[in-house]
Amino acid sequence: MKKTLGLVSLTFVTASILAACGGGNGGGDKSANKEPQTLVISTFGLEEDKMQADVFKPFEEKYNVDIVLETGTSSERLTKLKSNPNSTVDVIELSQSNAADGVTAGLFEKIDSKNVPNMDNLIDSAKDLAADGSGPAYTLNSIGIVYNKKAAGKEIKEWDDLWDSSLKGKISIPDITTTFGPAMVYVASGHKKVDITTDNGKAAFEGITDLAPNVVKTYSKSSDLANMFQSGEIAAAVVGDFAVPIITESNPDVAYVVPESGTYANFNTINVNKNSKNKDLAYKYIDWRLSQEVQEKTAVSLNEAPTNKNVVLDEETSKNKTYGDVAERTNKVDSLFVNKNLESWINQWNRILNK
Question: Residue 336: how many CB atoms within 10 A of its CB?
Answer without folding.
Answer: 12
